[in-house]
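Need tokens for this chain, all 281 residues.
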Amino acid sequence: MKSVLIVLGIIVILLVSTAVLGGVAFTKSTRNEVKELFKESDMTKPKVITEEDVQDLPEPVQRYLRYTQIIGKEELNTVRLKQGGYFRMKEDQKWMPITAEQYFRVDSAEFIWIAKVRAAPLLSIHAKDEFVEGKGNLVVKLLGLITVVDAKGNEVDHGELLRFLAECIWFPSAFLNDYITWESIDNTSAKATITYDGVSASAVFHFNEKGEVTRITAKRYMEVDGEFVLEDWEGQIVKYKMFNGVVVPSKVNIIWKLKTGDFCYDQIEIVDIEYNSLSTY
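Here are the structure tokens for all 281 residues:
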């Protein structure tokens, strides 16, 4: 009995060591990619956002940018942030805790997201989601070592650029870039289209009277049984908070609007944001 316990103990130690080392290696490798991404970033003194910069935008977008308090501040050229929250892949699946860090290079509409999902006490899933040089890629590795997903292609490119567009809410001066065009809908909504490196995606931003973005809606590709299907997708803003003088959403729920009903698969909480820094966490 004693020898069995010793063997089990050794197995547990090996599993824990493998998980830790695999996660560390995965994160280190991905952070090195971020450093390469930031190398080419233009860090000359950022311009200051003025009222003149927003005056030609649809009225609800102007109202929103004033609400964020970005006017009068420097434009945000690079971004790093930390996330917490919960994630699940299926409607009947238990929520799993997730932690992530994400890096954006705003001038080139690029990002790299590094995440860890705690699927079970000794089982971690590590993921890298990115849009770099006009290409999207989602990589998922069990214990940071065993590749279980490596998604690429036109539908992934579209989805990742759409993700960048939606996540500009965390660095709102990006909405003033030439790669985004705005189309007025009414006093509470406007359509944004982002085009970069041959890829294009659109989303409708919904605003309240206060100026807050309350929802972001779009058509996005969802993988179903190995095939991509265009479905209704929505980001619901739950709460706002000020980070470094800029008011941004701190809690967001991400939802597929399916024929069978709403499927919320991601509950995001922002715990830290830093702007115009070229370093990784």
